Each structure stands twice: as structure tokens, then as C-alpha cells.
Amino acid sequence: MEDIKAYIESGILELYVLGDVTPDERLQVEAMALKHPAIKAELDAIERSMELYAKENEIEPSENLRHRVLGSILTNFGDDNNFPQKAAPRKTNVVTLPPRKESNFYKYAFAACLALLIASGVALMSVYSRLQQSNNQIITLQLQNQHFTNRVNLLDSELSIFRDPSFKLLKLQGTPKNPALAVTVAFSQALKKVLIDMKNVNLPQNDKDHQYQLWALVGGKPVDLGVFDAPADSAQMKEMKSIARADAFAVTLEPKGGSINPTMDQMVVLGKF
Amino acid sequence: MSKKHKISLTEEQLVLSLRNHEKVAIEALYDMYSASLFGVISRIVIDTTIAEDVLQETFVKIWHSFSSYSTEKGRLFTWMINIARNLAIDKIRSKDFKNQNKNQEIENNVTSIDEQNSTVYKPELMGVKDLVQTLKPEQKSIIDLVYFKGYTHVEAADELGIPLGTIKTRLRMGIQQLRKHFN
């Protein structure tokens, strides 16, 4: 106890507070203060007094210095390098906002639209090709229909010839040179019509420089009734030039386009009423 | 010397928040202690601009080396005033500071040398009126030399031409007077 009192009265505590001690003395005073509450209390009393004395002698620094000093410290406030240890987590009133929910609706809607567009395109192409097929079929059917209509009309008209009592059928026989040859001609004096039944033309094939020519003999004179080819390109009744009267019919082989007068030695068939 | 303490905490709160590096801590620290520390710095560094620089350095150092302070070593202010005093003394002993003084006008030198080396009683450094009656001038001059100007008691004895034993006695008696005064 005496030691403590002597230590206090030595004046070392005052020098400690005034900052006038060596580092060794400093450590010694701090150790003593830790060990002895009386010394600690004495030290505290001196410190408080000197603190108040300093306050009595305070000098207010200029107003803008506060801003400067705090600024220089707080500028790097968030810089961890300034801190020897990590700062404790600080409670703040900052509320973390939930991240904005990115809606995928438009993304999916766009993708759906695109898929729909492609599907529509494919469907359209398929429908279009089937439409084309159908159109082709219709055209084919129409052509067939036309064909049959023509045929029916033709047969009708052919039939009407055979039914018409004014028509006379005349079979032209082959000349003695070619007795097997034959051509059938229908003639109506009333209608002034001459037709060759191309189906029953039995003549050798003419070359491309020659054509067969039909003649009517009227009072011994030959009258041109037109040219035709053998074999015929269609099995029809071919209508020739009209004539009112005829005693006989004959066919000669003539140069292409026909002649004005028949070449008699080229007569292939002949028939008389 | 108006007291404009915007933020004030108890010493325990202040130490805790300084340890946690809270922004409010440094603001409170400045508001509570800047004038006291500036009073010390201004008695060592006469030039106000340089004194303000030293005050800034003091707070930066307090902030960054706060982990080396512990309440077992004593009161916070004792620790801080040591930092302020040492930085101020370092400043006037630095080459820059001495060069700067060389460039000063002769007329200014008269007062500045006088101010820097003066140990005479300065009325503007006196506190409230009754403190004058409390503290004898010879006690006050020694306390001020050591506490505010950073002299050792040996240097003070040389400066004042007073024996070392007397210096120590006057220091202790003066502080005893202050304790009585503030209690």
C-alpha cells in the first residue's frame, strides 16, 4: 500500500498524462494501472482534469475544416485497404429491391408467332400444290370432255349423213392397175355436198410432194373438188368442195396442192352412178 | 470559442463506433475534440493554415490507427492529444517547415520567433477567469510547456532555468490544483 502511495506521489502519473514519459515508463505505468485499481483511479482523475484543462484552452478551427477533414477520411470510406480489420456489418435502412422480373411473355409470344407463320407457310404451299393438281385435273377433264363432245358431235353429224335420204354412198373402185384400192364418197345432190369417208380410204401413202385429188365428172368434164392425204390424219367424214351435179367421181395422184386438170394416168379409183 | 458540437456521444459509445469504423464515429470525434486538439496544435504550429493541415493529419491518423488504442491504456483524449502533439512537433521540425520559415518576411520573423520560443505568460491562452486564480503563473507556464508545447520536463527546466526537482513539484502541484478546480 505504501508502495502504491509512493508511486502515485512520485509524479510519474502526471508525466504519463502529459506525454512526458519514455516508452518503457509508459508500459510500466499501464501495467501498474492494470494491477492496482487505486493507481488506475488516480490516473483517470489526472486524465479527466487535463482533458478539461485542454478544453478550457481549446481553439475552434475554421468552419470549413470540418468538411475537409471528414471528407478526406470518408472519401476512402469504402476502401477496405484503409481498415486493418474488416468492418463489422452495418445495419442500414436500405431495403434490397427484388430484381426486376424480366417477363418472358413477349419472347415466347414472338417465338409462337414465328412458328405459326412457318407452319402457315408450309400449309399454304401444300394447299397451293394440291390446288394446282386439281386445276390440272380439271383442265384434263375439260379437254377430255371437249374431245368427247367433239367426237359425239362428229359421230352425230356422220350419222346424220347416213340417215339423210338425200345422201348417196358411192364406192370408188380401183383402176385395173390397182384393183384393190377403194374410196367411199357420200354425195347429196339436194345439199350440194360431197364428203369422203376417210375411214374407208384404201390408198397407198402419198409422199410429201404429192396429194390425192378428188374430181367430179360432169358431162364428161372433170371438176376439181379438192385435195386430201392418205392415210388420213383423222377418221372423219371430210367435206370437199360443193357441187350440184355429178355423173362420176375419180381420184388422181397430183403434185402437192392439186392440179387444174387431172393427170389421167395417175387415176387410182373411179366410180359411176 | 463557441461550442458547436453537432454530435456528441459518451466515450464508450464513441470508442465502440470507432472500432466498427462507423461514419458517425469520426463525425462525433471531430465535433467533440477538434477544438481541444486544435488548441494544442495551434500552440506548437503558429501558422493557422499549417496547424489546420496538422489537425487533418491527426484525425486521419486517429482513424487509421485506432486499432492500436485500448481503453486499458487510459482515456481516449490522452491517446489522441499525444498523436496531435507528436504530429505538430514533427511538423515544425520537418525540413519543409524550416525552409518555409526562412522565406518569411523579416517583420514577421520577429513575432513568429517570439511566439515559437516564448515561454512568457500569454493572456489569450488563459482559460476562464477563475482558473487564473486557481493556477499560479509559474505552475501554468510549466504545464503549458509540457502539455501543450511538447517539452519534456528536462527541457522545461533548461528553458526556464529552474531545477528539475522544482519543475516536477510545480507540475504535480499545478495538476492537483486543476483537479480540485474541476471537481
Helix and strand arrangement:
The complex is a heterodimer of chains A (273) and B (183).
Chain A: H1 2-9, H2 12-18, H3 23-35, H4 37-56, H5 63-74, H6 105-163, E1 167-174, E2 182-188, E3 193-197, E4 210-218, E5 221-228, E6 237-239, E7 248-255, E8 267-272
Antiparallel strand pairs in A: 1-2, 1-8, 2-3, 3-6, 4-5, 4-7, 7-8
Chain B: H1 11-19, H2 23-44, H3 48-64, H4 76-93, H5 95-102, H6 106-117, H7 129-134, H8 137-148, H9 153-160, H10 164-182
Helix pairs in contact in B: 1-2, 2-3, 2-4, 3-4, 8-10, 9-10
Task: Provide a descriptive summary of the structure in words.
The complex is a heterodimer of chains A (273) and B (183). Chain A folds into three domains: 2-74, Arc Repressor Mutant, subunit A (Orthogonal Bundle), CATH 1.10.10; 106-163; 167-272, no CATH class. Chain A is of the alpha+beta class and 273 residues long. In chain A, strand 1 and strand 2 (182-188) form a beta hairpin. The N and C termini of chain A lie far apart (182 Å). Chain A is 44% helix and 20% strand. Chain A has an eight-stranded antiparallel beta sheet, covered by helices on one side. Chain B folds into two domains: 1-116, Rna Polymerase Sigma Factor, Chain: A (Orthogonal Bundle); 119-183, Winged helix-like DNA-binding domain superfamily/Winged helix DNA-binding domain (Arc Repressor Mutant, subunit A), CATH 1.10.10.10. Chains A and B meet through helix 2, helix 3, helix 4 and helix 5 of A and helix 2, helix 3, helix 4, helix 8 and helix 10 of B.
